[in-house]
Each structure stands twice: as structure tokens, then as C-alpha cells.
Amino acid sequence: MGRLSDWELYLQVQEENKEALERLYDRYEKLLFSFSYKMVKQKEMAEEAVQDVFMKLWRKKGIYTEEKGKFSSWILTVTRNACIDLIRKQNKNEVEILERDIDYERAESVEETVTWNEERTLLKEAVATLTEEQQDIVDLFYFRGYSQADIADKKNLPLGTVKGRVRLALKHLRKIYSDERGDKYGAEKMR
Amino acid sequence: MEQKKCDNLLDYFNDKLVGREKEEFEAHLNQCPECQEELAEWQELTADLPYLSEEVEPPLGMKERILFNVTSDKKDGTAVDHDKPINQKNKSAETVSVSPIRRKRPRTWITGLLAAGLLLSLGTNAYLFIENDKNEQAIEEPINKTFKTVQLASEETKSTGVASMVQDDQTMKLVVHTNNMTQVQGTETYQVWLIEGDKKFRAGTFTPDENGNGAVVFPVTFPGEHNWDAVAISHEPTPDSKQPKGTIVMASEL
Ligand SMILES: [Zn+2]
User: Fold this and answer.
1) Would the CB atoms of B66 and A25 count as touching at under 8 Å?
2) Which of A37, A106, B137, B177 has a C-alpha 20 to 30 A away from that of A164?
3) pTM of the full structure
4) Which of residues 91-110 of A touch B (CB under 8 A)?
5) CB contact under 8 A, B45 and A105
6) A–B: how many Cβ contacts below 8 A?
7) What CATH number belongs to B145-253?
8) Is the confidence at residue B91, as pLDDT, over 70?
9) Quick check: B87 and B51 in contact, CB under 8 A?
């Protein structure tokens, strides 16, 4: 049996095929959980985020179409929004994260995570070339989902400059990363 | 005015706009090619960032919990707050956790189990149910039918318990009640296991109350067909044991 594409599996999920849902789940569990954990910094909340994503996937018909781009990018965006939403609720309830689950275990290596590991290594190297302030800004903007006003506040920057700074940092990151990978895709995109 | 709308793009990207603000921006986005282009640019600039995340092992049983929660309750559309992931550290008597079944567990534990003098007939094939196949409802029993009940007792302590397989309208649940359990310390918990051949499936975690009573209600939703041979309770050093590490305190054939 050949490997079905994400899109093919998604179509089966639309037909309420639980097995297809499970296969998609298996494919993305580790990535979505790890990404959520990086954002919300707490395992229970990260699980909630992943659950929200699959809830949408299963219950909201037609939520994904191929026009929305690659399935993997799309589901990561949905995951990020789920995390931002949870962070928002958490702030609202003024619930403090008292303990961070820092004692996480390293995963057993599976075939598919090899590329992820490689990407992460390259990405981290690229991040290391940013100034500390740039790293902070990227973190606040992307992983904490701060508003422009909150970033301005936190970093003591004029509101009008926030966007430019975030963009500059991300472009720099992208360039270094693309150069590292040396792949045509990155080079083309950077023009 | 328009420029002001365009300025909201980044906050829209970070899902910071709510209610009318969000609707207004979306309406604007539909009309504004610059914002459309820029949104695509932000998406592209950030597309790789999730891969910066360190790999983190999902909590035990996350897969079963999520798939169970996602695919149940669908028809009535009610809120699923009670199905939210449960903090494994809370000392609830009904902490439910299910572990992924794809991990291979070594055989050593079952050997230890047998060595502990507990009689388990691993050849018994108590056919219990076929899980959740939407085309095939193997069991059509009335609501809350108790399928099987076994007594649990410890050889070394006064601990006793009862484990029942209960079929409610949709799922099989394993219900375990225990009495006179030895108190746990720190992160220690009692872990219930369903045993099939040499495989152990996590079937709930609990800590006893001050009177030594503890209980678990556990939806048995492992994918596939299972012939459970036994149920066992072990005393674990932490709630996170993927496979039994601690000692078996009680067990019974099913
Ligand atoms: Zn605009």
C-alpha cells in the first residue's frame, strides 16, 4: 500500500474515516505537540492545542482546501492560532504557569524526524546570527504571538518601528537559513 | 484611514483582532492587494519557524485521549470541557490516562509479574469487544451493562478492589475501585494496566484518598480488537511510566 498524501488522507477524514484521522494524527502528533509546547510551555495546554486542531479538522467540514497551501503549513498555522488562543485565555484568567515541564524526554528518532532535526540545527545556527534583541523580537512575535503594541511596550520601541524590525529579523533569518540549506527554493524565494 | 487598516495586518496575523475589528479587517483584506501580498509574505517568512521547536515527547495516552474526544460527542455538539486533557499531576481519583499502543514493551515485566506469584492465565481469550468500528457494532447491549467483574486482592497488604468492564451507550469502560491502598508519596501513583498477551496497556492512574480508597473510570478505546487477559495495578514511582516499572500490587485474570 502506497503512502497517501496528506491531502488524500484529509479527503478521507472528510468522509469521517477514523483510520485516516489516526494516520494524519500519527504523522503530525510529534511536530504539533512540540511546536505547541514551545509556544505555551506547558504540556497540558500543548495537548489541548493539539486537540483543538484535530477537533477542527474532524468537525469543521471543508476547513482545509488545497488553495490554502501545503497541508503541513496550514496545520501548523492552525496550531499556532490554537496556542495563541489558549495563551489569551490563560492571561485572561490570570493563571500563572507555576511549573514548566522542562523535564521533557527526547524522542526516539524516527525516520521522519531526521529532516526535522536537520532543519532545526540549521535554523538554530541561523537564529544564532541574529542579535539578542532580534531573537527576542522573533520569539515575542512568533512564538508568544504578541501584538505590535505589546512588543513595542516590552522592547521599549516606538510602535511604528515594530513591524520593520520583525520583518528585518525574519528576512535575515530566512536568508541565512536558505544559504545554509543552499537549496534553490530558498534562493529563489529570496530573489 | 486605509493605511490605518493596513497597519492591523500583523495583529491579524497574530490573531490579535477580535469581534468587529477582525471582521472589518477581513473585509479590508479582501479589497486590499497590498495586505494580501504582505500576509503571504509573513506566512512565507515564518513558515520554517515551527521546526525550531525541540522535539518533545507527547504525554502518555495523548493520542487515545485526543482521538477519543475528537470523534465522540459529535452529534450533539455539546461542549467537551470534561474531555479536556487531564493534568496527570492532580490527585483526582478519576484521572484517566491512556497510552499509545504502538510502543513495544519488553517482555521482562510480564516475567516479573509471574515471578511475583500472581497467577495469570495468559492464554485466556476473554473476547470483550470490537472497538469503535463505525460499520460494525459488535456488541449491542443495553446501556451501562456490566460485562465482566473481577475481584482484586493483594497477597501482601489488605488492599482489595473490584474491576469491571462496563459497556455504556458507546464505549467500553474499565471501572476500578480499590480499598485499603497503601498511601503514596510524592510523585508515586497507582497505575492500572490492561494486559493482552505480553502487552500492557495503560488504563488509568490514580492516587488513593486519605482512607486508602481510589477509583478509575477508563474509556477503553484502543484502536483495533483486543482480547484482554488480565487487569493489574502497579505502584509506580511517577505517573509517567510508559511501561510498568513498579511492583504489582494486585492483579486478576479477566
Ligand atoms: Zn491593506
Assistant:
1) yes
2) A37
3) 0.58
4) 104-107
5) no
6) 141
7) 2.60.40
8) no
9) no
